[in-house]
Amino acid sequence: MMLKRLLLLFCLVSTIVHASNNCGCCIPCGKNSTTCLISEPCRSSCNDGCISNKGCEFDCDISHTFFKARQTTTNNMLQDNLSLYWWYHDVLCEDDCAWWTMQVTPFYQRSTNGKQVAQYFLPCKQSCIEVKEDGTGDVGSLWLNLIAADDAQFNSVVSIRPQRSAVGVYFNFRFDLSQVMCHSWMDLSFAAMRVKHDLHFCEDNKVPGVKCDLESVCESLNQPDWQFGRFNTCSMTRKGVDDIQLRFGYDWFYCDTDHLSPYFVATISTGNRTCPQYIFEPTVGSKHGSIGLGLIGDLRIWECENQELTVINDFKYRYVLRACEIRSFDLCKNGDWSRYLQVVQSDARSNALPGINAFTQEVRATPRSVIDWWVALHYQWCQINVELGYDLWWRQKERIELCCFPQNIGIYDMVGDCNQNPVSASCAMICQSVSGDNTAPSDTEFVTLTCDDINLDSGATPRAISNTIYAALGYDGMVCTYPSLIGIGASYEFGHDCTALDNWMLWIKMGMAF
Question: What own/partner pairs with CB < 8 Å and gap ≥ 24 does 40-45 have?
């Protein structure tokens, strides 16, 4: 009977979460679109023989346009360290048992793998690129409207070192619902935080541009005609509340030394829809709710007088639901950074327009599965607590469905335009130029781009894995008649390749039971 009530409650929350994230159909055509005539979903990937510039492996080493850092609220390590043991071994064991606790955890976090994260955004997983006018660099400057004097060739070297920092307070409220439903509990968590992103953009401009009012790559990547995909050279910040997490659990087995507790989990979205005006924009919260299951357990493995050693575990699986967002994309056969190629209408082939505006579109994004497994070894001596732990985080590759795509556009034929006979250049690449050995080939007939030319993987968040180790020290006692906890901790998170951040974090945890 109690389990049925829990299931009913979870179904109710799941319905609310799903309803808040069900966009039905995306808003028809963003301001950068012209028509929405897609009757069937475009293919979800283009890893079928496509090529990329500079000979890199297109199926795995692609440049991405959108980066999503791990969320704070759903981080098991930040939520459970010290406090999970305190709840089951101190708070619930008091003679006058408390029925709810409040925990407040100020924290500071900073990423360290800027060079690796740069490979996520730049062509062919490089952290430094050459922008040249003669077609021998990683990026052809003509596509960026960078033209040197008549007797020179534009030449510049660009690097970025993206860095993320976050400061905030993590709140957790845990309730003993035994008076309502025996052995049941609930907790609510969220984080109020301020996130700052820095690209640390650096440019060595050896031969500057003199035409089109653009002298450097920095200026070109921020030209006013680009509505999306800019490179901000200043710090970008965002404040807000991260997604809210709710857990409903049942202490299926519980004694003074050991326990096992399955639970249902759901998150409620608090963020706004992403609008990628800049690369590496900070986000707080999301538009995606989620539902899932988890299992908490601990086992005392050693005890001697006032000392004990306990192994604690929290395994959580969530399925993150679909929501509408805006993303930028590269083209399949045109390779990395093809989003920055210029495009034209079929009836105005000399009027080049920024491709990034056309290749940024409404999508239905489904992040899908996320797993967070936390395990810790907790030592208690009298009222002193020492905890060492590990956390594994895994996120599935995102599924993207394109909502809209503009009609009657093709890639600008700059070679043909120089010869006063522009058609289109459907096979052009960002590294090419109008002369030399690496020219952008012209088409014999105008080739119109379709949604199947879009590389959806370039705008999706890829699979990500990270491993975290941490240490925490705490003291539990009484404040007046209320059980209390205070502790400090530090962690380091190792991201697997460039899809996840390396982070260090410091925090102070304070809790009180009522």
Answer: 41/401, 41/402, 42/401, 42/402, 42/405, 42/451, 42/452, 42/454, 42/456, 43/452, 43/456, 44/399, 44/400, 44/401, 44/456, 45/455, 45/456, 45/457
φ, ψ of residue 243 in degrees (nearest 5):
-50, 145
What 3-state DSSP class applies to 176? Answer: strand
340 phi and psi, to 5 degrees? -95, 5
Q: Do residues 375 and 312 lie in contact, with contact meaning Cβ atoms separated by under 8 Å?
A: yes
CA terminus-to-terminus distance, the chain: 28
Nearest to 10 by CA among 181, 253, 172: 181
Task: Check pLDDT > 70 for residue 322.
Answer: yes
Alpha carbon 59 to its chain centroid, in Å, reads: 20
pTM of the model: 0.89
pLDDT in tens, 122-158: 998 899 999 999 999 999 999 999 999 988 999 999 9
pLDDT band of residue 88 (cuts 50, 70, 90) is confident
What is the enclosing helix (H) or strand (E) of 357? helix 355-358
